[in-house]
Amino acid sequence: MTGDWVTSKPLEALMGVLSSSFAIVSAAGFMFLMGIPFVSQVTVMPFLALAIGIDD
Fold it and tell me: Tell me, what's a Pfam family for it (predicted)?
C-alpha cells in the first residue's frame, strides 16, 4: 500500500469484500428459508466467492 489514495484504492478493496460477503450471507439465508439441506462441500463457497470478488 502506498500513501496515495488514488493508487492504493483501499475503498475499492473494501467494497469488493463487502459485496461478496453480502452475497454469501443472503444466499445462505435464502437457502435456509427455502429448506434446502446443508451439504458440507458447500463450505468452500464463501472462500471462492471472496477470492473472485477481491480479484475482480
Answer: Patched
